[in-house]
Each structure stands twice: as structure tokens, then as C-alpha cells.
Amino acid sequence: MNSSQSTTGSKKRKIKAESDTTVTNKNESSDSEDDIALSKRRKITPLKKEDVKKPLKKTTKVKKEEDEKPATKRKKAPTKVKEEKVSKRKKKVEEEVEVFRWWDNEKEDDSVKWTTLEHQGPYFPPEYVSHGIKMKYKGEPIDLVPECEEIANFFAQVIGTDWAENPTFRKNFFKDFQKVLKKKMPGCPIKKFEDCDFTPIAEYFAEQKEKRKAMTKEEKEVIKKEKQEIENKYGWALLDGRKEKVGNFRIEPPGLFRGRGEHPKTGTLKRRVYPENVTINIGENATVPPPPEGHKWGKIIHDNTVTWLAMWKENVNDSFKYVWLAAGSSLKGQSDFKKFEKARELKKHIDQIRAEYTLELKDKLMATRQRATALYFIDKLALRAGNEKGDDLADTVGCCSLRYEHVTLEPPNRVIFDFLGKDSIRYYNEVEVSKQVYKNIEIFKRPPKKEGDMLFDRLNTTILNKHLQKSMKGLTAKVFRTFNASYTFQEELKKTVKNSTINEKLLAYNRANRQVAILCNHQRSVSKNHSDQLKRIQDKILTSKYQRYLVSKEMLEIDPTLKKKKPEYGRLSRGITKEFIKNYEEKELEKKKAKLEKDNEKRKAEGKELLTLKDLEEKKRQPTLERLEKQYDTLSKRIKAQQLLLIDKDENKTTALGTSKINYIDPRISAAWCYKYNVPIEKIFNKSLRNKFKWAVEVDENFVF
């Protein structure tokens, strides 16, 4: 392994892979027991000889209140609870699955991916069973055979969503629906979409949804158990004798294709996949998994130079689908590691490459000048290289496939890009470029070129990548995107303030991530409930401020002189209206009544006298000034954290942070940042990402991309 990876040294962190059966579903943003447990496990891992030169720097400081008190003052009950927690934590660590540490033994030759491979093949969705609910045509119920009824179901299930109102979606759906109707029901009267009424079926599915919500705990447990049995059978493979998790082992059921953006095939029928359509890849000496009864596999191969377990071709875009090992598997981890190491390697060559293409911007040969200009855009703007698309696919382009109309010039040196990128997401960007690049674009757009003509008519991705190979082995245009994303992220993280709070550091982290998302054009539309989310956070802020106001009033009752020192005490914050106070008091009263009812049920069972609200108030302990001061400080910190969350939510409304964090940013940068700024890694990597990037968390806090 490359020495620059820094997997040894005084700051080396080690963690074990997390077992699905041992990690509880806790809020990632809270300081949960799991958060503390993982931080402690990372610190107490035994060191190698070379690691003992310096003591490990503590990254998480955890000290419980009872530890600060003398042993004689400890109460028995809390001690017992603490011992139980420690015991559970210890048991949890012992139960965790030992990880295959492939990063300690990297192979020189990676052409052979595995020696032995065993698995159970993919899991097929169950065959369709008719429910008998009839759609209507021109107001009359229509009897449909099961094959046609199933397709009618697909549209009924999107009623009430934007898809149902999308003209392209409706057109493609009805076109495929009619094809099946003509084949299975030749005399069917359904001819026009406008005369179709899928409401009865939609209402049926709405009822089924409500029934699922109303299921008893026992019924839910039965379903959960069935899912777990499927997971246990199909969700694991044996790779070179090691148990590895399979990722997408379920074959997608039939339905209507959605697509992203303005995809021309949205609404097209996705046909059911049968075993006859599937190719199985398995070890030569392994037992071939039996296909579902009455079927046989399309093909069985034993190719150890690829990492997929099964493959088939889907009908909508005529593309191949694969079953892979999970994101946290050794093969996927090695692939990710090599991708980021290649991007780090580019850092050594980037200055030379930039110097070369800058000179070539003025080259006399037009093909060379086009190549240099395209490379300038790929490097500076993180544009995708772009490949030719067929007429049946969405009109998405990249740098090499830009057309005349996608680029507009605005003197003296501004270039405006406007085109559909990957997944039909619009790329719009106005940038100032060098005078030579601006001049080149003017030349590339000269008559007789017109709309529809290629901007770079003497360039494609094959030519570009072949040229890049001369500068660095394995270099492609795609590597620039990973390099620029990771490097930008690392530079942005330098703005983190060392002595700030955890929430302020996380805001700095997300802002750095957002800059990468903007660079890579990772956009998303504002969610429908975005304003509701902001409103809920704002309500929490006002509630905390009002609670702080009440606490300050109590403090002034005990010591009125505090008003001179702290003028804000006893003063209502802006936004707290009479209506807000009334609603708050009503909610608090409801909480007290609920608590009283619960307490009285217990007292009634014990034969004790029932209490009233007045009894609860009299029973309430009068707080000390010291205790109130602590409450005031706690509420102030909570308000600040909520305000930061509000800013973060609002700033992130149109950017998709996950794509860049998972695919384009070297995870070692994030891990090193966590250790350097004492941020628990659980705050930025959830359980899934910690499992995916377990190779990356063993990094020195001074790691540099």
C-alpha cells in the first residue's frame, strides 16, 4: 500500500466492521451510547510496535457526572445501570464480525478478483396475484386479465403524484398498456387514455396502505421475520471463503420507469425479469443456485476477472443491470481506494498537464486546440467528459458532446453554459474564462456552424482519454472530477474554526461539502415539505427562547439584582406573540394532564390516593439559583444549535450533498478532519458509510489528499 496513505503512526485509528444485528437505530445527530462506544473502540484498539512512539491523542472526551463525585456518594441504582450499559457494550464489541483487512495486504496484480465464489443468485419478486378490482372506461367497469390488471395497478399507484400529471409519462404508459391489451385482450374497448378511470384501483391501494399501518405488532413481526429469512439466504456470498454481504440481490419488480429530469422514456413499462433473462457468475467448483421452480438460468459463467454475481438486460434503456457485493465489501472497498489513489496521483502531474494544455490553447492544429479547450473546461469546471447518445435516450451531454447552442459568449470574456447533464439535470453556469479560451470558442462557433452542430467537432472522449494516458498511466477525464472535488473539499475545510462548537464545525463541514456539490452540479429540487421543516425548526427555537425567558423570570424572583448584570433576563424575544404563549401553555397543560393520568393509573393499581394538578404543582421542587443558571445555559446552547441547523437546512435546499460525499470526495479527508477537530466520526458518516469506508477511517489526522 502507498506509504502516503499513512496507515501507521501515533494517530492511527482502528475500528471493526459493524454487524447489522448489533447496531441500534439511533439518531445519528445525537450523542448516543453507540456514538460513545465507537469512539472508545477506536481509541482503545491495541497498537502495533511502531505505533507506540507517541501516545494516542484523545478525540472524544466522555466523562459522566458520577465519575466526578467521591465513590462514597454514589447511589447504588445508577451504578447498577452503568454496569449494565458497560456489560452490553462489551458484549456488543465481542459479537462484531471480524473485518477482512484487505488494505493491509494490497495485491500487485488485480486482474483476478477472486479465486472461489459462492452465492444463492438473485431474489425474484413474487408473481402477480389478481385483486379483482375493476378500472372504469367511459364510466363502465372493465374486466381485465391479470397481466393487464397489473399494468393498470402501476398507473393507479402514481395517482396524486407529479408523475400522473406528466404528459410524457402518461403517453408512454398508455402506449405500452395498449400493446399488452392488444396482445392479451384483442377485443378490449380501451382506446383513449382520457376515458380511463383508475380511481377504483387507487382507492383499493389506499385502503391496503391504511391496513398495513393498522397492523398489530405480531403481524409486523411475521413480515419482518420473512424479510430476514430472505436476507439471510440471498444477502450473503462466500468470496475466497470469506462471508461478504451482497448489495442489490433483489431483482427489481415490474413497474413504470421514472427516470430523472425530463427523461423521454418516463412512464415506459419495465417488464418482469425471469431467470431465463439472467446470467449467473459463480465459482467453477461451487454449487449453482437453483432457479425458481419451472425456470432455468439464461447462462452460467465462471469469470473471476469481474466482480458481479448476476446480470441481465432491462428493456427500457436496453442497458445491463448487475448484482454486486455490498458497498462495504472488500472488492468495492478496493475499487474505491484505487479510484481515490489515482486522483491523488493526478495531483503530482496536474501542474505539468495544466501548463501543456495552456500552451496548446494557441496551437495551430484545430484538433489540438479543441482538445486543450475541452480539457480546460473539464479541469476548471469539473464537467463530465460526455459520450454520444442514441436518439432513444435523453438528450444529455458532457464537455466533448457540447453543441453550438449549449454555449453562449458574452464579451469581453464570459461564457454561458446551458445544457442537460447526466440524469437530465440542467447545467447552467456563467463563468469568466481566459481571453484565449474565449477566442477559441468564438472560432469553434464561426459560420457555417449552426444549432445542432458539435462545438468540438474534431474531438471525442476516446481521443481525449488516449491523450491523457501519455501524461499519467490510467488517467481519464473522469479522474479530474474526483481530484477537483476532493481537493476543493480539503481546501474549504481549512476554514473550520478549531475552538468552535460541534454544531459550528458541522456547519463548516456541510458548507465545504456544498461547494463541491455546486462544483459538480449535484442539484436537487426543493422538497415539498422544505418550508414545513423550516417552520418546525423555527417553532423549536421560539419554544426554547420562551422556556429560557421563564427560567430567567424565576432567577429574578430569587435574586432581582441580576437584572442589572444581565438586562436580557425577563425580556421576551422577538417573535413570541400572545398567540404563541397561549398555544405553548395549552400544550404544557396537556403534557401535565397526560403525566397526571399515567401517575394516577399507577397509584390506583397500588391502592393509593389519586392526585390532582394542584398536588403536582405543590409537589414540584423549588429550583436553586445555581440549577436555574445551568438550565438557562443549556437552553442558550440549544437555541444556538437549532439556529445553526436552520441555516444549514436552508442553504442545502437545492444541493445534494450525498452524491459528492459518497462518490467524489476521498473519505480519508473527512476522517482526518474529524480527528483533527475532535468531531465524532458518527456525526458525518452514518452506519452505512462507516461500513463502506472502514478502510478510510484508519488515517492520520494530518492526512493530506
TrEMBL record:
Record: active site: Y664 (o-(3'-phospho-dna)-tyrosine intermediate)
Domain DNA topoisomerase I eukaryotic-type: 256-678
Alphabetical GO biological process terms: chromatin remodeling; chromosome segregation; DNA replication; DNA topological change
Top-level taxon in the UniProt lineage: Eukaryota
Pfam families, alphabetized: Topo_C_assoc, Topoisom_I, Topoisom_I_N
Enzyme Commission number(s): 5.6.2.1
Cellular compartments per GO CC: chromatin; cytosol; nucleolus
Sequence ranges of Basic and acidic residues compositional bias: 62-71
Stated name of the protein: DNA topoisomerase I
Organism: Anaeromyces robustus
